[in-house]
Predict the structure of 4'-phosphopantetheinyl transferase EntD (Siderophore biosynthesis).
Amino acid sequence: MAAPESESPAAAGTHLLAALMPPSVRVAEANHDVDAPLLPPEAAHISGASARRRAEFATVRYLAGRALAELGLARPVMVPGPMGEPAWPDGVVGSLTHCLGYRAAAVARAREVTALGIDAEPSRPLARGVLERIASPAERENVCALAEALPGVAGDRLLFSIKEAVYKAWFPRARKSLRFADAEVDIRPDGAFMVRLAMGPDGCAELTGRWAAGGDLLASAVVMKASV
């Protein structure tokens, strides 16, 4: 699933995603780009991109390195895979996200967390017609109900963010594309959501997650804890 381009900068909310995570997940966040060096294969991969794209590409990898360091691990070469997925060290799950003015990386040991997906978006409505392409009738009703309960939250954008986080958690396990229609989302005003997958990883048809709003940002996270 491809995200629509964000055009306005995100404001405060540097610790927005960290607040959604259990202690087993390490998160590094920033609300600006940093002048971080890339490893040679990464620099070659991104060399033809715009300066803006190169900056966000480098920043999320710098943040990934910070998060991995909290696990006592070095950052590997992180050239995106065929579906844009980042590479992680063996025994680690992780996820990256960026929108204008905000970048984040989250990682965890695979023995503690089996799947991890994060996403951040500007808290503003989607462009006209996008909601109809990504949402089922039940999801559109859910977005309307959320607007009544929380009028300051762009529910359609939040739905998009949650589906992005679900995809990032799901793809590394299933190694198959996920359509918007494959994930049926139920967003709750208390900051929780449930997702029913048409093609769940390892036969698991339901996921749960958390979302938050802060400044002009929306953030969502899916964390599948390992069975004890």
Remarks:
- Helices lie at 40-46, 51-69, 130-134, 137-149, 155-174.
- The longest helix spans residues 155-174.
- The beta strands are 25-30, 92-99, 102-109, 113-122, 183-187, 192-197, 206-214, 217-225.
- Confidence is low (pLDDT under 50) at residues 2-13.
